[in-house]
Amino acid sequence: MRAYIISIGSELMHGALTDTNATWLARELIAQGIELIHVTQVGDDLARLTETIRRAATEADLVICTGGVGPTDDDMTREAIAALVGETPVVDPELLETIRAYFAQRGVEMAARNAKQAWLIPSAEALPNPVGTAPGWFVRAGDAVIVAMPGVPREMFRMWKEQALPRITPLLPNRVYRSTNLRTLGIGESLVAQQLGEITKQVNPYVGTYAKDDGVHVVVTAAGNTEDESLTSLNATLHEIRERLGATIYTEDERSLPAVLLDHLRATGATLGVAESGSGGKFASFLLGEPDAGDVLLGGLAFARGAGTAGELAALAVERLGVEVGLGLTADVTPAGNGLFEGPVVVAIAGALTAEETFPLKAAYPEVQRRAAMHAADVLRRAILTGDDA
Fold first, then answer.
1. How far is CA 155 from CA 137, 161, 239, 273, in A?
2. Which residues neighbour 186 within 8 Å (Cβ) at sequence distance 6 or greater?
3. pLDDT per residue as tens digits for the range 82-96
4. What is the dihedral of CA 85, 89, 92, 98, to 10 degrees?
């Protein structure tokens, strides 16, 4: 199956929003063995949008549209699909009542214009949206299937998983696909690719490397005629990747990096305190993004630059916060021109674990803070693993 993604909305064209939906969907398609042949963005222009969907439906078996299903006049995805198949939308009473109920549960009266979101055409099957007001459409247009979903990421993610994908799966060739994402830390994408070598050039299993804010991800997808065949192929490649990347891999499941760090600390029974200078408290905030962080991270202290060395801050965290492990982080950077800052980032750990490392950085200030937090995560993770080995 070949797929075409269309991201809809003038706000995307004007740079007001970043198209994260297409990136997320691309990974989903790869995991299902669906070949993505094109990704495009279209503004809120009915003629242009209709022509784009028409072209996509002639080139691909599956056309995925995100955005343009709101209640306003510039939300034109339904109109474009209806024009393509030559059908007239009408308000579906059941959809309309569902949307009314959504507003009523929140103590709000539905505006008349929201009735547009209850439109349906004969060729379309409505895709329920339990976390928003805009249902999606699943449309058969000749030899192609068109899926229209909201542009709001949390709504689109859930609709794809719960509504669209179960309808698409029976249409796929009789192949079994299995995928694993190995996440690495403390190693750049170019070095990951270098260490993997020829593995990234093979067709099956497919191995892709992706630089993310939480490290480099290595996604492995295997295809086979049976589940056993695909799993055997997947596991053989995973074994080889583990051999080559070793301890830089911090997880192979869906846990976030903060969750992995917190789980490691729980396993040791140690509590953590963080004291930061010049990093805007990014590392403590990073960990506190996990809702259950409070049983491990007992507090974070944030200071402007020059509050002490990383070692002094680590000791301060132990003393003031009453924890077994203190982490001190300093970002002592100064302007380097062209909006960049440079200088050393130092991470120190004191208490039940000890470590200290220095990292030279040169980047825009928000990036300095982000990378400082990632260095802190890497130093802490390796210190925990070293402590476990001891």
1. 13, 10, 36, 36
2. 215, 248, 378, 382
3. 999 999 999 999 999
4. 90
Tell me which H or E stretch contains 277: strand 272-277
How far are the Cα atoms of 3, 209, 240 from residue 302, in angstroms, in the given order? 47, 34, 42
What value does the CA radius of gyration of the chain take, rounded to a whole number of Å?
25
Angle between helix 46-59 and 77-85 (nearest 10): 60
Q: Do the beta carbons of residue 350 and residue 320 sit within 8 Å?
A: no
* Structural fold of domain 176-251: Alpha-Beta Plaits (3.30.70)
**CA distances for 137 relative to 45, 81, 101, 122, 309, angstroms:** 19, 9, 20, 11, 58
Give the pLDDT confidence of 159-177 residue by residue, as tens digits: 999 999 999 988 988 788 8
pLDDT tens digit sequence for 224-238:
989 899 999 999 999
**Class of domain 2-171 as given by CATH:** alpha beta
Domain boundaries, the chain: 2-171, 176-251, 257-389
Q: Which CATH superfamily is domain 257-389 in?
A: CinA-like (3.90.950.20)
- The distance in angstroms from the start CA to the end CA of the chain is 51
